[in-house]
Amino acid sequence: MNLEILNSGVFTPLAGGLLIGTSAILMMLLNGRVVGISGIFYQLTTPSKKPVWQLGFILGLLTSAFMYYRITGQAYPEMIRPWQFAIVGGIFVGVGTRLGSGCTSGHGVCGISRFSPRSLIATITFIGTGIITASLVSFL
């Protein structure tokens, strides 16, 4: 298999976007549900629910980075960070998704495609905060 196209810098984001869009469409068509990772994870941690498909979805997310590494032999730079950053970042993301009533996948991918004003405002907030954070981190 020719891996040059996989590592070209164009294919990976395009393939990722196509996979995310396809999964969002399939989730809506097959389950009638929006792909919101924070909501799926919350349902997984709620004892009264039977987390069958939620567990499969989360396991698929967790194994995708490993599958990418096995196919290309390269890890994303983000995977090489100290684990302490991942824990702190995860806590911030969890709190933010509860405050924002959803995450980037629920609001940004699914909400905007359904023309939800709340999702548009949430996505603008996500992107704006990301730009500010990236600018501050690169400045420091």
Structural description of this entry:
- The protein has helices at 11-31, 37-45, 52-72, 83-99, 104-113, 117-139.
- The chain is 72% helix and 0% strand.
- The protein is built from 6 helices and no strands.
- The protein has one domain (11-139).
- α2 (37-45) crosses α3 (52-72) and α5 (104-113) packs across α6.
- By secondary structure, the protein is mostly helical.
- The protein is globular and about 45 Å long.
- The model has no long low-confidence stretch (mean pLDDT 78).
- The termini are far apart.
Brief write-up:
The chain is mainly alpha-helical. Helix content is 72%, strand content 0%.
Any descriptors?
140 residues; mainly alpha; 72% helix
Write the layout of secondary structure elements.
Blueprint: H1 11-31, H2 37-45, H3 52-72, H4 83-99, H5 104-113, H6 117-139
- Bin the strand percentage: under 5%
Cα-atom Rg, whole angstroms?
Answer: 17 Å
Q: Alpha-carbon distance between the termini?
A: 42 Å
Helical run tally: 6
Task: Give average pLDDT, whole number.
Answer: 78
